Amino acid sequence: MNPDEAVQAILDYHKKTNHSVQSVREGNVRLDFSILPRLYKLYRRAETVALPEDVEPSDVGALAAIAGDAPTSSGVPRIEDVAALLKLSAGITKWLKVPNGRMAFRAASCTGALYHIELYLVCGDLSGLPAGVYQYGAQDNALRRVRSGDYRGALVGATAGHAGVASAPACIVYTSVFWRNAWKYQSRAYRHSYWDCGTILSNTLSVAGSRGLSAELVTGFVDDEVNRVVDVDGVREAAVAIVPFGGGSGAVAATEAPARLNLETMPYSPKEIDYPLIREAHAATSLDEAGTAVWRALDGGAQAEVGAPVTTEGPAESVERVILRRGSTRRFQLAPIGEDALRTMLTAAARPVPGDWPCIVSRPLNTLYVIVNAVDGLEPGAYVYHTEGGELELLHAGDHRFMAGHLGLNQELAHDAAVNVYFLTDLDAVTGAMGARGYRAAQLDASIRAGRLYLSAYAMGLGATGLTFFDEEVTQFFSPHAAGKNVMFLTLLGVPQKRRRVMPE
User: Fold this and answer.
1) Nearest by Cα to 302 from 251, 357, 346, 250
2) Helices in 220-371 by DSSP H: which ranges?
3) What gap in Å lies between CA 359 and CA 365, rounded to an integer?
4) Is 313 helix (H, G, I), strand (E, B) or coil?
5) Contacts for 246 with CB less than 8 Å, ≥ 6 apart
């Protein structure tokens, strides 16, 4: 399809998957647990490479790492760094006791706990790890060798010579296995590919920063070529993001992407249900060589500084320890949080995201809208957060707890939370400037920032969780200021109720 058709297709997808009271009622189908997908990708035959089990905490404060304010260098990552990045992005950190035994708890939150994001490491020779393409197995914290040899050049070619990819000793490719989330969420699962990838990316970028490793997000690439590198079909499983990290290995020249290997994997379910809207949306937002070259030519590079760096007083916990004890709040107390705490979390979320999307749209791509239910020092009401000055502007005062609960799909979590933070973007402006690929950028920008809120809340001893929402009603609630904008993400912040007992991994 041509660029205009692609833009229209992704805007149509977003509108068709909007939640309303009626759509939720009609779409609330009974889940078929006989085809519940397996949560792990399992190869029938693949060499296993063990990773170090212990995670070394850094001496960088968590909030500085989360906000991207930690100093970085161009050092080559150690195998211990690679292991920490992978485990603290998508690995198992603890086990939750349940009636039938125990359930694995991952480093980053995921819609429905269906964990459909897979990570692949593409690296040159590292100390303790030969060059190759590896899939990360969360189930045993080990790598599966997909290819032997250095295929970083194929990623350089697929990204139209992205400088960060060319100079990085290693890259992580993030994919989404669409069915593993669509089993529960149907066509809306395509949004979740970026929601859940973004919260994982916030972990990756935070851990890289805490260990002094440069890292950035690359969203402009030839989809078919990156899929071939990591040996996925691009339809049932497809690449959605790349993060090059580290330095000091010298520039890598671009090479052609290899052919698919078609390595055999275990089926996820006895059968899978096809959702055409997901296939159509992904096709609309995919890039070929020409589209990637245009994206790279418009790449604005690093975002200009926004606001002041996050600062804290006294000793600070490492982000590694924060991630290892992070959870998802299932119940909030009807208790206030401090205004300083809220402003610190919002400042962390508003710091620049090191993404490669074009700078022809005002940054950040998303505006933060806030429902304050209980914050000491702030009047209850609806606010918009101005990232440039770090100010909260009151849009309309009042007790909006019941409206917050309604907008969050009539769930108690949204009602009880001290704060509801919505991320809204102008999709017409974004796709008009960036094309259909801008949809992915807007989703990832929101979810990475939401992931920062999540981590900073736990770093400050508070609780957080993500939630879905009634799309158009949220825009109406924050209008006229939010008129014409679309909701990308919702994060809840507050004081958690006592959690169930968990066992360390």
Assistant:
1) 357
2) 223-229, 276-285, 289-298, 319-325, 339-350
3) 9
4) coil
5) 74, 75, 76, 77, 81, 168, 169, 170, 213, 214, 215
What count of residues does the chain have?
A: 505
Residue type, 31: L
DSSP state of 120: E
What kind and span of H or E run contains 171? strand 170-177
Nearest alpha-carbon partner for 106 in 122, 118, 124, 120: 118
Q: State the first-to-last Cα distance of the chain, in angstroms, to the nearest integer.
A: 47
- Contact assessment for residue 414 and residue 404, using Cβ atoms and an 8 Å cutoff: yes
Inter-helix orientation angle 189-210/178-185, to 10° = 130
**Confidence class for position 314, pLDDT limits 50, 70, 90:** very low
Placement of tokens 């960088």 in the chain = 60
319-504 is a CATH 3.60.15.10 domain: no
DSSP 233-250: -SSSEEEEEEEEE---S-
Q: CB count, 10 Å around CB of 136? A: 23
Strand pairing class (92-98; 101-106): antiparallel
Stretch (H or E) spanning 392: strand 391-397
Q: How far apart are CA 222 and CA 215, in angstroms?
A: 20
Architecture of domain 3-20+42-52+75-193+208-297: 3-Layer(aba) Sandwich (3.40)
Kindly indicate the confidence band of residue 56, based on its pLDDT and cuts at 50, 70 and 90. confident
Please state the separation of Cα 249 from the chain's center in Å: 27
How far lies 7's CA from each of 156, 194, 219, 443, in Å? 26, 17, 17, 15
Rounded CA gap, 66 and 150, in Å? Answer: 31
Say what the pTM is.
0.95
DSSP 80-119: HHHHHHHHHHHSEEEEEEETTEEEEEESS--GGG---EEE
Mean pLDDT throughout 306-327? 74
For the chain, the structural domain boundaries read 3-20+42-52+75-193+208-297, 319-504
pLDDT in tens, 19-34: 999 988 887 778 999 9
Strand partners, 94: 105, 504
pLDDT for 71: 80
Residues 261-276 pLDDT 10s: 999 999 999 999 999 9
The reply to whether domains 3-20+42-52+75-193+208-297 and 319-504 share a CATH topology is yes
Alpha helices in 299-355 (DSSP H): 319-325, 339-350
